[in-house]
Design goal:
4-stranded antiparallel sheet
Length: about 350
């Protein structure tokens, strides 16, 4: 039994009470100082968590027991050589991220209970903290299988519920990755194979590879709009304009599309109406873009700015994403616009 401000509670209850105080304090401060908190990314946020932990731990059994680990170690913060706090963030308006490696080869020795403190770093900035294993929904692949974090999981929805083993049981196995692969292999449908990247790769992919023809209509439409958002060259007449999206679909999304050209241009010409004027004979790709522009804008505005900068090959200032995309889109569309369609009115 441990004492937390005079209360006799178990070790775990005491630590969870400490984390509750930390999250409440950080949420309160984030509401009061959103600009300051909005700049706390990466190691800066870890430092802030350590600072607040130390403040909240004064007078408790955890005072003076908080250590931040430098480098690629799991978890980021260790308390009393037994508890751990892993810090994750997203700048998008959701509660999902990529977690740590399934193999946990960098786990700090002696740490037995890990909690995930997750920061949604867009207004309103908010923090949630839960037991690590309660937030892991699936396994995705970079250079090795990693957990997918979802802070909104309900009871019975974790990857461990699907595997039929607990988090502690899986991490204690000699080859936990084999258990994960066996699970996904057992769920393969006809025409699917497991996807594995054994080289260093910055993206993530589903473990299951699917053919484009196996996707639902909604999935196909969503990928078309993401394609326009991430790869503006799709709007041009360049001979290699489909290459980058094809690679991204395969390595990032686990989708193989052998006829990507047909996805965007099949059916020949299109006809659209802009400001009461009918434009017949426009390129099929312009018609698809015109009808899907709201969705394209949503993908651009919700994507991580550093990811867009990588896709587009140019630096981006915060708040400048949509204007930059419009400029790229118009530049590419000029190579296929043969009908006099006013592009500046279409793309805005």
């Amino acid at each position: 039994m441990k004492s937390l401000f005079g209360l006799q509670v178990t070790d775990n209850e005491a630590f969870e009470e400490l984390l509750s105080r930390v999250v409440n304090m950080m949420n309160r401060e984030a509401g009061e100082f959103p600009d300051m908190y909005g700049n706390l990314l990466g190691s800066k946020l870890e430092d802030k968590v350590v600072e607040v932990l130390n403040r909240c731990a004064v007078g408790t059994c955890f005072e003076g027991q908080i250590v931040k680990y430098s480098g690629q170690r799991f978890p980021d913060i260790v308390i009393s050589d037994y508890y751990g706090v892993e810090v994750k963030t997203t700048k998008a308006n959701h509660w999902k991220s990529t977690g740590s490696s399934v193999a946990e080869g960098t786990r700090v020795e002696g740490v037995e209970r890990v909690y995930l403190l997750f920061g949604k770093m867009c207004e309103p900035i908010r923090f949630i903290c839960k037991p690590y294993e309660a937030c892991l929904s699936e396994v995705v692949v970079t250079h090795s299988p990693r957990y997918l974090v979802d802070m909104n999981l309900g009871e019975g929805e974790t990857i461990f519920d699907k595997l039929g083993v607990s988090y502690d049981e899986l991490r204690g196995q000699a080859n936990p990755i084999r258990t994960v692969l066996d699970y996904y292999r057992s769920r393969l449908k006809e025409g699917e194979e497991l996807w594995w990247l054994d080289n260093d790769h910055s993206g993530t992919s589903n473990l299951v590879v699917r053919m484009w023809s196996a996707l639902s209509l909604e999935e196909k439409q969503a990928y078309q709009m993401k394609g326009f958002a991430f790869f503006p060259e799709l709007l041009s007449n360049h001979s290699d304009k489909f290459n980058r999206m094809a690679v991204w679909l395969a390595t990032g999304e686990g989708v193989v599309c052998p006829n990507l050209r047909d996805v965007f241009s099949a059916g020949g010409k299109d006809c659209i109406e802009q400001d009461g004027v009918i434009y017949p004979g426009v390129s099929k790709v312009i018609g698809k873009l015109y009808r899907g522009l709201p969705s394209v804008k949503q993908h651009v505005l919700s994507a991580d700015r550093s990811l867009l900068a990588e896709f587009w090959g140019c630096p981006l200032r915060e708040g400048d994403e949509w204007r930059a995309w419009c400029q790229l889109a118009i530049k590419n569309l000029e190579t296929i616009n043969t009908t006099g369609l006013p592009l500046e009115k279409l793309i805005r």
